[in-house]
Amino acid sequence: MSDRTLAELAEKMRDIDFTMLSTRTAGGAIGARPMSNNRQVDYDGDSYYFTYEDALMVADIQADRHVGLSFQGKSGILHAKPFFVAVEGTADLVHDKARFEEHWTKDLDRWFPQGIDTPRLVMIHVRAERVHYWDGEDEGEVRVPDTAEAAE
């Protein structure tokens, strides 16, 4: 079992754009859907995703804020072995256009043609609590400090 820092893990995650965002559905099943992190790959434990207010995952999050994120990428340029990251965290729904603008990229216009003024737009903010990784035979868990801890 290996122990890496969040910064080391973030470096390995740099080229991963898509994740599977998993929520618990009203019926108790696990619902998963692909989401783009909008090329915000400097991972610090926070992830941001845009969707519409009426999406099923929004209702799932309103009922249960605990979510999972699954990332898959490559580790090492020469060996290109698979690299997996599983994040457990809590999600908040953000409706503030100023916060939208902080995380908006031009590529999002394809899905949300009116930009941050798109009706029913909502941003999902996932704050990691635990991060697990697997890189060939190397695996471990990274502890993510909460914001109060990080401020000390």
Core attributes:
disordered C terminus, globular, alpha+beta, 152 residues, Pnp Oxidase, Chain A
Detailed description of the structure:
This protein is of the alpha+beta class and 152 residues long. It has a single domain (6-151), classed as Pnp Oxidase, Chain A (Roll), CATH 2.30.110. Helix content is 18%, strand content 43%. The chain has four helices and seven strands. Strands 1, 2, 3, 4, 5, 6 and 7 form a seven-stranded antiparallel beta sheet that branches. β1 and β2 form a beta hairpin. It is globular and about 45 Å long.
Write the topology of this structure.
Layout: H1 6-13, E1 18-24, E2 30-36, E3 46-52, H2 56-63, E4 66-75, E5 81-94, H3 97-103, E6 121-135, E7 138-143, H4 147-151
Gross geometry = globular
In round numbers, the mean pLDDT is: 84
Q: What CATH first level would be assigned? A: Mainly Beta
Query: How many separate structural domains?
Result: 1
Element order: H for helix, E for strand: HEEEHEEHEEH
Question: How is the CATH topology named?
Answer: Pnp Oxidase, Chain A
Percentage of residues in DSSP E strands: 35-45%
